[in-house]
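In this section we walk through a basic example: taking a raw amino acid sequence and producing a predicted 3D structure, encoded as discrete structure tokens. The instruction is simple. Fold the sequence below.
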Amino acid sequence: MATALRPLAIVTGASSGIGRELAKLCLANGFDLIIAADEPDIYIAGDELRAAGARVEALRADLSTIEGVDALCRTASGMGRPVDVLVANAGRGLGHAFLDQDFQEVRKVLDTNVTGTIYLIHEVGRAMRARGKGRILITGSIAGLMPGTFNAVYNGTKAFIDSFAAAIRNELKDSGVSVTCLMPGATETEFFERADLADTKLGQSKKDDPADVAKTGFDAMMRGEASVVHGVGNKVRAAVSAVAPSSVMAEQHRKMTEQPRSK
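The resulting token sequence is shown next.
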């Protein structure tokens, strides 16, 4: 008798942080996995997850590029079954004032957070719609609800993602495909070091546990919810940002992300 194949999940940005925790949750809930990131640690994550007994394909790919996303889609095709869950979690930040940033680094943030993310959703989502079945979890952020002084490009990309997720969810209603947007706040990951924000007030503040954030998002996805903000404090911040003037929110963000002056 043939053994039934386990459902398949793709998780991007899974080498560490929220993505790695989301991959663990997928595994614990009976999924085989394709995990991807633009870092060698993705192979360490793959070994860790594989040890739990699931089939795990780990792919190091630059998901800011069409070629990287295509490589991920080819890996999925090679699994011999449809993708049941897509967790589009890969993201990148960039601190300092916009005019002081290297534009190639700016472009990398845009291409990772926006272009690569929506291209992957376009490719996988089409197949889900054709089957009439699938779940998509997109990692947005409460950062998308406010002007991101000294992190302007990142916050702008998350504003796009938060809006995009809500729009395509509506487009896909009654299709059998659900879209959920996870909107975390500051989380204890490598994001702040990579974005050169570690020495800011935000970088040094107490942050949420990525495992808790991942569970909030995973559970919301499995319930088919539209969006979820993790944590009471972040829900308050999201509510304030909805009514406070943009100028006020931009100044508050400055206080959290401005680099300390050299003595």
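Looking at the output, two observations stand out. DSSP finds ten helices and seven strands in the chain. The chain has a mean pLDDT of 93. In the next section we compare this with other chains.
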